[in-house]
Each structure stands twice: as structure tokens, then as C-alpha cells.
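Researcher: I'd like a structural prediction for the single chain below. Treat it as a standalone chain; there are no partners to consider.
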Amino acid sequence: MLYYLFDHLDKVYDLPGAGMFQFISFRAAMSVILSLIISLLFGKMLIRFLRKKQVGESVRDLGLEGQMEKQGTPTMGGLIILGSILVPTLLFAKLDNIYVILMIFITVWLGIIGFLDDYIKVFKKDKAGLAGKFKILGQIVAGLVIGLTMFFNDDIVMREKITAEEQQDLKTAMGLEQGESLDPSDKFSRYSERSTKTTIPFFKNNEFDYSVLISFIGDNYKKWAFLIFVPIVILIITAVSNGANLTDGIDGLATGSSAIIGSALGVLAWVSGNIIFADYLNIMYIPSAGELTIYISSFVGACVGFLWYNTYPAQVFMGDTGSLAIGGIIGAYAVLIRKEILLPILCGIFLAEAISVMMQVSYFKYTKKRTGKGKRIFRMSPLHHHYQMIGYPEPKIVQRFFIVGIMLAVFTIITLKIR
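Model: Treating it as a single chain, here is the predicted structure.
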């Protein structure tokens, strides 16, 4: 909203400084600052309100050190994160941008699903919360909306870089002399097009078109590409959302990990939406995707601000209101900037947590069926509980996971040049 106000003031009244709102970097910085302020101030008030209403976490005794001390800690703190994301985004982003609209939708939609789960647990005293099938259904709806919009909306397009031979022909046609180079905009196709292509790491020609997976149906296979593209989007959003939910088991882990992941995604969105960087990195150029930098800046600021209260010993838990939403946000964001294949690297912490649970459950069932007595790979899953069981204090586990997360984020970014 402020973008449109200051744009009007700049064009009509030539107000000094109003033109700063044209720069994504300025609005992103303002979004981080405002989201931090909102999360710190609103967080304190919400925690006080939750304590007054006795909205406390019900802890199941798993035999972990210090676990029962968390009994009664206020939950549903994900409302702090959601509010701190939405307000700066609404103020500083271009609200007619389809990418921003989709991210606002995913934030609100999955926030509602998580809120219903927490509400049933806290106020209805039902520890099971919202039935798992309804959570999955909510995630499927989110994936459907994102996938179908990306496939059919004319505002979600990309421009591929033309080949070296085509660039040389263009230089000849333009009469450029030896040593002179084309402008970055001339190195990309003139026309924007809807596409189901994505970026794959480590390969020179680093683009993969999902539509080729159904090329066997005939010459018009690209027309039906949504049949494979949409299920992939649903799978990604559901997987990352549930991975974040599993990671939310000790103080600050999911929040801090999400801030690290969000920072890397912000860099990827910025370079993908900037034609100069897209040219330098030899990646697809996604017009208007740079506006997503405003949203992810709010996301990172919200997570860091919430971490102020969520770090050990936590004053508030995010609950499913936060964990389901932040995972879905990360998954949807990566899909929108065509970098979802990088998620196994970038979200390595989430992936390790989810795999540890699958391994533990599968092995336990297998050994029980074979021997009559179930055996475990880990002392407890998810993975962070395993380290608790062998004696690591919570802060050490979280800090070491953060170190690994930062390494993975840096490696994810440099994959754009490693080919």
C-alpha cells in the first residue's frame, strides 16, 4: 500500500525521497525492519494474552531432560510470525503482483489450517488436534492453487537465455564490433512464455521441463503438462510443510532454520528477477519475481523476531499455526522461483528430520514383523530427540543444526555457478 502512495507522491508532487520506494532493495530492508519490530512488540503482547487465557502447551512425557518444565508454555505463537509477515508485505510489496498474491494466499490458508489444529488441541482439549486427513487436504488445496495458477496464469512467465550461436548472429545483425557485447536484455528471448521448466543444479544446461515426463502421450503433450506439474507442486508443498512441522520439537530449531532457508531463497529470488544477475549466472530470467524479495524479507524478519521469544528456554511455542505455515511458505516460494529441486540441499535439516522418522517407523515395523520385537535405529525420532537422549543439551543441538543449515544455504547459492 505504501508503495502506491509514495509512487503517487513521487510522480505527482515530486516528493524528495519518495522515489526510494521504486527500489526492491529499499523496500526489502524496510520489510525486515518492520517485521522485526512487529514480532518483538506484538510478540510480547500476545504472550501476555495467551498466558492470561491459559493457552498452554500440553507436554507428553517422553523422558527427555527438562521436557516437563515446558508444560504450560504458551502456544499458538505462530500468529506472531504470520502477522509479522503479512503486515510489511501488504505495506511495501506491489499487491497486483501475482507472485505476492500467491504467497499471501499460502500464508493465510496454511495459517488457518494450523490454527484450527492448535485450537482443537488447546480449547477442545483434544490432543490429536485436527484430523491428519484434513491437514493433508489443506496442503493439497494449497498445492492445487499454486500449481494451476502457475500453469494457466499469463503473468507467471519466464525468459530463457538464447544460445551462444544466436547471440553471435544477433551481434552481427546489430553491427557490433569484435569485443563488444550485447546488453543483458538482448541475451534472453524477446518473448516471455508460460513454462513448466525448473532449475537443476550442477549441470551446464541447468533447466528441466517437467512436461517431458508425459511426452509419450503425443505431440500435444505440453498442453497437458499440468497433469504432472500440479502433483509435483502438491508433493513439494506437503513434504516441506510436514518437514518443518517435525523439526519444531525443541526451542528455536524450526524458527532459526527457517530464517536461514528464507535468507537463501531471498537471494535466489533476487537474482532470478534481475536480468543482469540472471545473465551473469546463466539462469532463467523470471520477470516480476524480484518482488518476492519483499515477502521473504518479511518472512526472515518475522522468524528472527519470533526467535527472540522462542530461543531456549522458550517463552512461547509457534504450534502448528506457525510450523505448517512456514514449511508451506518455503515450499511454495521455491516452486514460484523455479528452484524447488534445490530444496533437498537447502532444507537439509527438515529432510534429515523427516527421514529419521520414516527410517525409525519403517525399521521398527519391519523388525517387529520379522522377530516379534520392534527395534529402533535411533534412540528417539525425530533426529533432534536422538541427540537429546544421548545427553546433548538443547542449545548445543540447536546451534550445531544452525551451523549445518548455514553451510547448506551457502552451498545452495553457489550451486548456481558450480556446473
